[in-house]
Amino acid sequence: MADLITVDDPDDPRLRDFTGLTDVELRRRREPEEGLFIAEGEKVIRRAKDAGFEMRSMLLSAKWVDVMRDVIDELPAPVYAVTPEVAERVTGYHVHRGALASMQRKPLPEPAEILAAGGSGRRIAVFEGFVDHANLGAAFRSAAALGISAILLSPDCADPLYRRAIKVSMGSVFSVPYARLADWPADLEKVREAGYRILAMTPSPQAASLDQVPPERFERCAIMLGSEGHGLSTHALRAADEWVRIPMAEGIDSLNVAAASAVAFYATRPTRPA
Predict the structure, then answer these.
(1) tRNA/rRNA methyltransferase SpoU type domain: from which residue to which, for each copy (predicted)?
(2) pTM for the full model?
(3) How far apart are CA 7 and CA 126, in angstroms?
């Protein structure tokens, strides 16, 4: 059973994991270095726990203690009960969800492990330059909902375990396996060697429309999407086996990358009508 500890001092060193959550640059450096991430809200905390992440500590507003009682009783990590005012002074913002948990990271799998899994109909996604945490979280959520088996990230992609990405994904970052490719875009050749057809999403008129691509081309495919605004780099496009695009209404050339990922994942699903 966890210890329930009331804390009145926002400078209490026991709350260090939760300090300065709005300082993006600080958290980007500190969280991976210290092997932690922050889960926010009851559902996300429960999903992190159910995914096997170890809890370091929890910060709760008093009214959330009863809601999280089963978690408190189950886990040995300390639980700090604070007023909303103290929580805001510690974190730097109004914690309207009332519950935060500091969780221990797990080692990331190697890309080879991701690529070796699954059968012939398996689909994965490859993200290049996803630096916006909200877009990354939304794309993970779409991947989980639409049957994407795993995600590979270019070295410059944002951290899927950053608080904003986790929250937008509704915890889907815990359920979709992911790994980082160290040598970009050269490591795309390893994707192809593993038997995946690399489909580059691009609005280029040279790309084939998704609704006209034969369904068999989506079997064991890697759907590659680029950053918001810039799209896929020239190097990534050259490394692809095929370019594909979402058919658009006249005068509109693209979608937000998170929305585009959802459309692509839906259009390439195995149940797509011929």
Answers:
(1) 125-266
(2) 0.92
(3) 44
